From TrEMBL, chains A, B:
NCBIfam families: ArgJ, PRK05388.1. It is found in: Cytoplasm. InterPro entries: Arg_biosynth_ArgJ (IPR002813), ArgJ-like_dom_sf (IPR016117), ArgJ_beta_C (IPR042195). Heterotetramer of two alpha and two beta chains. Keywords: Acyltransferase, Amino-acid biosynthesis, Arginine biosynthesis, Autocatalytic cleavage, Cytoplasm, Multifunctional enzyme, Transferase. The lineage of its organism: Bacteria, Pseudomonadati, Pseudomonadota, Alphaproteobacteria, Rhodobacterales. The gene is argJ. Substrate binds at residues 162, 188, 199, 280, 403, 408. Catalyzes two activities which are involved in the cyclic version of arginine biosynthesis: the synthesis of N-acetylglutamate from glutamate and acetyl-CoA as the acetyl donor, and of ornithine by transacetylation between N(2)-acetylornithine and glutamate. The active site is at 199 (nucleophile). Pfam families: ArgJ (PF01960). Pathway: Amino-acid biosynthesis; L-arginine biosynthesis; N(2)-acetyl-L-ornithine from L-glutamate: step 1/4; Amino-acid biosynthesis; L-arginine biosynthesis; L-ornithine and N-acetyl-L-glutamate from L-glutamate and N(2)-acetyl-L-ornithine (cyclic): step 1/1. This is Arginine biosynthesis bifunctional protein ArgJ. The keyword Cytoplasm applies. It comes from Palleronia caenipelagi.
């Protein structure tokens, strides 16, 4: 197993204060699924009146847990719901046995928590292809239910970590119709996929009251602008799961586009950025901002090609203002592009325009900029109004070390 | 500039003996484009009666040279042709100035060699975004023409190297209608793209007589099964160029599918494999063989996802039989896949089948296999007859070192 890495240099200084969400209770436990001497299971209990929305990996080899969540997500949670998550074993590619593990865990939680099995959502994260010792999880379910208390989100964030170097949380409190609405979320993930310990998992809770279809619509759309805009290594997990539960104990939200949705978007973007900041071996946080594309889809292709290019990411690691590699990535992106209309910027520094290096650009200016820990690579294609932004990190020796040097 | 790396551990022992091709003369020179103390320009002169076919990068930011070659490739070379190639500077993303460099080089070669400008093909490989000092190249054109001799392919292979650690050549001699036909080729490339020194360049010569449309058809189709099936880092060069010239001084080939085409395919595959074997930092040569896909296109998606996955490639570097990462890559490939029909093999060792690890598989067997320098990862999707094979190398600390640790 990979030894616990030192805290990422890009990590926030402290875990944020997360508000209690009325209608939500949490508990964590050490079930010994794989790790010893730490918690590895978390349970969230959601009171009756809750609505739940979800977004899941599209991987063709996604885990039994993901398939089970997908099947359940459209159902009604008026009688309450539960989310149980274990770290240490992903229950992915474990054949029919994996389906059985999910069934037994759901049954145990349903019985202990007094909800129906159809309202129990599970996630598993960790090693692929080994049988999930679900009996160790079901053994602690009774205690988890008994110990569940409001708050306790920071402990939950710790229990779901695998190769993460810091627990991830974010919250916003907004006023809607003169009343306070709270949003608090936790995430794990050290890349879109971590070594053996695959997976990004995100759980967000709010006390707002929102009908399930509206909740799902907001979640899906905001995902496309937050979690679907980050990449560490371009590899996609078999288990990525994002669940959003609204307990319905505060104001009712009935429309798109208000203060609540804005705050939810902020929480999601904050958590997404924290996942990048914990990218394996990361030393730089990079925003890739593409404008002037023929379409938004083209802008996305260009941003993705840059953010996933090993040559761009190693140049960033080496603090090398190697804009030729950005030209290369634009070229390979399959988006409409014209060499003679292309502009490239490092932060506010114009590097290249009209198909060549800018007359005022100096390598010293570029090299000085690249020494920063937070970078913005700007590309304007000069063709239209299409725009997209993605976030990524650099590709360093530590990434190779984490993924190659240690046997899993 | 990146210091010359030590010879790849995957390199062939020696440069092969390449036969002389009647109707072809070659010369190399040290023009000092960027490198000192080595040759950096090669010229190939092709006698009247030659036909030329070509395949080029599809990058939207491809170089002036590539655009010029594309415009010329359909023309008639009955009056003879020339190919001139420099290393050290790619003339890519050099704006309108790059077009001027190509024009001046073509004019100089045309005058000295007595061919029309429309029959001069140029390639440039090396740093992106710096003005090509074409006057240094045109200054040596007279000597190159004067010194051109039959043979001399090994010197030419040396002159076009950038970050390559060994020159690349391959040849076949086949009998067609009782007469000998010779094929000889050279290549450079240390990945689909090397650091700043972008580009894969390939020049293949034969004394066969073949009409241009047939030559182009063979080249395009064989490219899809050879050079388009290799990847080092998934990044695409702005300058990739493959030219095939048939001097017409031996037997005429009028049909597809014979001994000549088979031999040409072997030369192309050999050169393609040599490029992978010189992949930056490579220590393992990996064949990814996908079968049982719903379509050939799906098989290709799966092979590409595996061959380009940083997590698979770092696992190979670490000699870790981490088949969970192969499952992940299958899942993210966007090809039709069914967990419960998937079979994975390392060489002859069955690792996983029916959605889980194979009952007889042991980690020791897998770990032992991964210690080999040449690996075959086999994936059968169990759905249909679609198949594809790709070749790649591992992702090591040396790749990061070459691309991040040295300023270009």
């Amino acid at each position: 197993m990979t030894p616990m890495a030192t805290r990422s240099p890009l990590a926030p200084d402290t875990f944020p204060d997360l508000p209690e969400i009325a209608g939500l209770r949490l508990a964590s436990a050490a079930a010994g699924v794989r790790y010893q001497g730490r918690t590895d299971v978390m349970l969230a209990l959601l009171d009756p009146g809750t609505t739940v929305a979800g977004v899941f990996t599209r991987s063709a080899t996604r885990s039994s847990n993901v398939r089970d969540c997908e099947a359940k997500i459209g159902g009604d949670s008026a009688g309450g719901a539960a989310i149980i998550v274990n770290s240490g074993n992903s229950n992915a590619f474990t054949g029919k046995a994996g389906d059985g593990s999910v069934t037994r865990i759901c049954a145990a939680v349903a019985e202990a928590a007094g909800v129906t099995e159809a309202r129990v959502f599970t996630s598993s994260t960790g090693v692929i292809g080994e049988r999930l010792p679900d009996e160790r999880i079901t053994a602690v379910v009774g205690d988890l239910v008994a110990n569940a208390v409001p708050g306790a989100l920071e402990d939950a964030a710790g229990a779901i970590m695998t190769t993460d170097t810091f627990p991830k949380g974010s919250a916003r409190v907004v006023e809607v119709d003169g009343q306070e609405v709270r949003i608090a979320g936790i995430a794990k993930g050290s890349g879109m996929i971590a070594p053996d310990m695959a997976t990004m998992l995100v759980y967000i809770f709010t006390d707002a009251k929102i009908a399930r279809p509206l909740l799902q619509e907001m979640l899906s759309e905001l995902s496309d602008r937050t979690f679907n805009c980050i990449t560490v290594d371009g590899d996609t997990s078999t288990s990525d799961t994002l669940l959003l539960a609204a307990t319905g104990q505060s104001v009712e939200i009935t429309e798109r586009g208000g203060a609540f949705e804005a705050a939810l978007g902020e929480v999601m973007l904050d958590l997404a950025h924290q996942v990048v900041r914990d990218g394996e071996g990361a030393t730089k946080f990079v925003e890739v901002a593409v404008t002037g594309a023929a379409t938004d889809a083209d802008a996305r292709k260009v941003a993705s090609a840059i953010a996933n290019s090993p040559l761009v990411k190693t140049a960033v690691a080496g603090e090398d203002p190697n804009w030729g590699r950005i030209v290369m990535a634009v070229g390979k992106s399959d988006a409409e592009a014209d060499r003679d209309r292309l502009t490239i910027r490092f932060g506010d520094i114009e590097v290249a325009r009209e198909g060549w290096v800018s007359p005022d650009y100096t390598e010293d200016a570029g090299a000085g900029y690249m020494k920063q820990q937070e970078l913005v690579i700007g590309v304007d294609l000069g063709l239209g109004d299409g725009a997209a932004t993605m976030w990524t990190c650099d590709l360093t020796h530590a990434y190779i070390q984490i993924n190659a040097d240690y046997r899993s």
